[in-house]
Every structure is written in C-alpha cells, then in structure tokens.
Amino acid sequence: MSGNMSVRLESVIDAKLAKNRDARCFWWDGKWYSNEDFSRLADECEASLRASGFGRGQRLCVLMQNCPMIIALSLAVWRLGGTISPLNVKSGMPSLIGTLELIEPFVVVASDAIREEAGAVLQEKGFTCVTCPSVGPLPALEGKTSSLETPDIAVIFATSGTTGLPKAVPLSHGNIHSNCTAIWEALRVLEPGDVFLAVLPNFHSFGYTVCMIMPLVMHAAEAIVPGFLPPQQTVRAVREAGVDIMVGVPTIFSYLLSAMERGSVSKDLFASSKLLISGGDRLNANMHEVAIRVAGKDIMEGYGLTETSPVVAVNRSYEEHRSGTVGPFLSGYEWHLRTEKGEKTDKDEGVLWVRGPSVSSGYFRAPELTVERFDDGWFNTGDYVRLEDGYIRILDRVTDIIIVGGFNVYPQEVELVLHTHPGVKTAIVVGMPHPVNGEVPKAFIQKADGAEVTELEIVKYCKERLAHFKVPRKVEFVGDFPLSGTGKILRRVLREREREKK
Questions:
Q1: Of 170, 202, 217, which residue sits at a domain end?
Q2: Same domain for 162 and 185
Q3: CATH number of the domain residue 478 falls in
Q4: What global pTM score does this model have?
Q5: Candidate from 22-31, 74-83, 127-136 with smallest mean pLDDT
Q6: Is residue 37 predicted with pLDDT exceeding 50?
Q7: How far is Cα 218 from Cα 226, in angstroms, rounded to an integer?
Q8: Using CA atoms, how far apart are residues 146 and 392, in angstroms rounded to an integer?
Q9: Which residues make Cβ contacts (< 8 Å) with residue 306, sequence separation at least 6?
Q10: Which helix (H) or strand (E) is 27 found in, with range?
C-alpha cells in the first residue's frame, strides 16, 4: 500500500486520547462524551473482539448508520491489526452479498433495524451477523476466519464497478493519515477542539475519513448524526454541539438553504460555523449566491475520490476561494493531464492523473481492474479538468457515472436490472440534470418485439431491485439509439439532449 508504511492510526489516535482524557471527543444524541468515554468504549470493543478470536489481518464489516460504535469499532479493529469495512445495506442485496463475498469478513456488525432487514439473507449466505447498539456494548460473537491476511489495510470501501460488479478500494493507515494531515494543513483556520459535523454516511469515504476519523487524528471533535433525514436532527446537532466545520454534499446544503429561505430553519444556523465545505458532487453555480444571501457566507468546494482517501483538492479559505473550482491540490500530490487515449499532454485541459501518499495502490483482489485505472503509482481519476493558476475546474466526467446527491450510480448496474425485464430489448441509462440532486438517472428503452410495457411498470420494477437513488426518475421509449461509426451507442449524445432541454 502507498502512504507512510510506519504510521498506524490506532497509535496516533490513542496518543491523542491520552493527552487530554477530559477533552470533548464526540457529541451524540444531545450529550458530549469525553476522550475518556471514547477510550472506554473502544477498550470494551477490543476486549470482545479479542475474545472472539479476531486478530491480525482479519476484516470486520459494519452495517450501521452513523453512531459512536463506528469509530469505537474502527479503533478496536486497528489495535488488533485488522481492517474495518463500512458498508451500505441500501446498495441492494445482490451488491451487498457480492461485496461481502469479495471481502470475506470475520463478522458483520449491524444495527437492530438492519439485522431485521438483512439478517436472514446474510445467514443464508453463510455470514456471521451480530447486532450492536449505537453506544455498545458489542456482544460476544463467533467469527469466521479467512485465510487472506490484510495487515496494513485500515479500511475497505465498497463501490459498484462500471460493470455493475462489486469493486472494493483498500486504504492503508498511511493513506488515510496522510490525507487527514494534508487537509488540516490546507484549511488553515482549523484549530484543535473544532467541532466537525459527521452527518455524511460512514460507508462513503468523504463522511468516514473527513468527518469521523480526521477529528480523532487531529485533536478535534465531532457531532455525530445518524443521517441527514429527518433534517431536524442535523439542525439540532449544528446548534447544540456548536458545529464549527459544516461538511456536506450539495443536496444537504440545498435543502438547508431552502428551509432557511422559507423560514422553517433560522437564518442564523451557520452563524458560528467557520467553514461550509461541499464535496461529493458538483455544486450548482447559483448556490454560491444563495448561500451568501441566505446564510451570510459562501460554500467552498473540494474534490476527491475513494481511491485517494478521498480528498485531492479543496479551496483553502473564503479569502482565496474561487467559485466554480474545487481549489488547489493538497500537499503531497503529483499530477499531470492525459488525453482520453492515455497520452500525456502539456495543455491546461485533460484527464487528471494523480500520485501521492493518499492514493490507494489498487483495487482489492482485482488485479484486472487495477490495471485499468492505475499505472506505476499513478491513478486515473476519470475526470476531465482544466487547470487555472493552480486551481482545478472539473469540466466533465470521462466515465459515465451519474452522481445523485453525492452518491455514485453506475449506469451499467441499472441497465443490468432493466435488461432482466421481459419487455425490454435494450436499455441505456444517463444522468438527467436535477435542481436538488445534481443528477438523477433517466432510462432510454427499446421495447422487446410485441411488448406492452409502461413507464410506471419499469420504475416499479427497478424500485423492487435497486437502491432508491439508483432508480430511473424518467423513462423514455425510443425506436433506436444514436450510434457511432462502429455501431456503439452514443451515451454522450443522449446526455447532451437532456441538458439542452433545461
């Protein structure tokens, strides 16, 4: 794994906890917990895991909303030389099972609600699953040992590949530590004791690394919220915990700013916050003006990918902020631009490739996928960018990924489901502009010969088989598709048609 091989996150965090046992560590459900409280929780988790036989190189998967146990289990797992993998049960059961089969966890730790939803399927597939409350204790458990050892991998994040098959990104202790320190160095207004809002989901590297682990590493604190919905719990956390650093995706900021404009949320919500930072998707240009008018301060953009632990660039401060860009590169990164054919270019526009201590060394147990995106330590971000005096402007995605409210939707995954419908001959899914979510999926479908199928039937069919954000919002039936000279369907043309309608 790339990154500083000598760094261990548990050593860094334990040293921070020991330095001031009485300092605030995290806010949860209206109450502050100290470093001492957190240490005790992590100790209990470690003892339970050790007694179960969990040890060096083993992997523990977590299916829980944001809660104190996520960070406590992370620390306990690392102390024992293991790897943690936060997963999303809403990704769809086929995707979840495929990911678990790839990772081969010692045990799956789930909340009561998720165990009720998925426990029977997990057990049927041979996975050990235990339930755990949000603040512990972790029950006694019996795990399943895997022959595969992964001692330096701190976290494995799962995502669907562009083929719709499970793909997992392993990040080393050095990868994550280097990213945390580079972010802290870049955002110069940050101070020890600052409170980060941890509302982004833990199975998303942005939420996990930046909002949950970085505060533990960098002597800060965090206000943990299970999820953004219902939004009242986020508003409560911002107010009661005194959030200094508000980290979100465009959907969250759009909702809160709209609520502030309507008067259902007070306009002084962000009055005490130092920074409003958005990532995970492109921020609509008009959001900057709305934020300044409604909240009295702008939203700064950053940029990253799971494979880069995740942050690559961020605007540094309101004084240096350049709207429409994602800011300059973090320290430690090398970069260059290539053409879509992979040839290096001296132009200011091209496909962005990066290398550095935060970059993963490749995909988990998938050398063929690694070869596609990694080249001698260089990683192909898949994004077409323009460099402007050191600032990065994202022009377009070279890949066909649709980003819905900060979450990746891979068209091929949706198409695989659509193609199982007897009334569908050919299906192509592209991103359709959406004022709140950025994009939503739209399906273009050629019906099977003689088939009678409606848009409502297609949407219902997808809802039964896909996570809600992956379901096409619109379906258009077509007689044929735009084709290239080689007969390849031109997704780009379909996307452009949708954008022209706006």
A1: 170
A2: no
A3: 3.30.300.30
A4: 0.83
A5: 127-136
A6: yes
A7: 22
A8: 42
A9: 157, 159, 169, 205, 360
A10: strand 24-28
